[in-house]
Amino acid sequence: GMRLAIFSDVHGNVHALEAVLADIDAQGHFDHIVFAGDLVFGAADPARCIAALQARPIAAIYGNTDELLWELPPLDDETPEEKASFLKLVEWTQGQIGASGLTYLRGLPFELCFSPASDHSHDLLVVHANPVNIHSPIYPPEERQTALFGKIHQPDAAVEPFLRDVTAEVMAYGHVHVPSIRKIGRHTLVNIASVARPSDGDWRAKYGILTFKDGAWHPQHRVVEYDVAAARAAILAAEMPRADDALRRTPLPTT
Fold first, then answer.
1. Which of 10, 47, 73, 180 is deepest in the core (most CB within 10 A)?
2. Does any domain span residue 63?
3. For residues 37 and 128, is the Cβ–Cβ distance under 8 A?
4. Alpha-carbon distance 155 to 17, whole Å?
5. Domain tally for the chain?
């Protein structure tokens, strides 16, 4: 057997991260604890998020908002004002994590693979967004897309090219901040996102547990309450660029 806890998309929210790590600690033994990218960019505590990962035996990969700290994406779609505030947040985040933090992030791999079977027949691939790049989203199943967006953004056929060279049976990933399980051909795609910045209308932090037992993978989504008020107060106290955006993406509990 094999048991993994996998989380992604922390975006500088150390309050949500620490709640998830505490919940992982409470779930018993894991063979691996894995972080699937987007660690520091977007909230008040980038350096503390790096320290929290470094303090534990966590295997990590990088995401698109980690990479932009050393290689800016084209910002063609942004207005001049948006571009300026975005660059300010990049610089602020770089200053918060320092050279050592940047070195840590730049040393992370693109993907990780776990093999519960010696013949690799049940491999689990962990990537940030998809197996090809760190940018293109893989959305939830078609019916969930219809519920979320009122239409299908990405039919199953559009996902197949991403999986052409994938031998793994299961893929765990984040990037799209909506937990889901999508079956495409012989692949099971488990979105375990997100610790922070939810897009599913649920304010709580989320991660995934994947257990390989009796010849099959069993995915489970975990949902964790955390101190949102403290996370929001930290955003204001940090006097960080784009604080209004960070607050909007750190929603208060709905009663």
1. 10
2. yes
3. yes
4. 32
5. 1
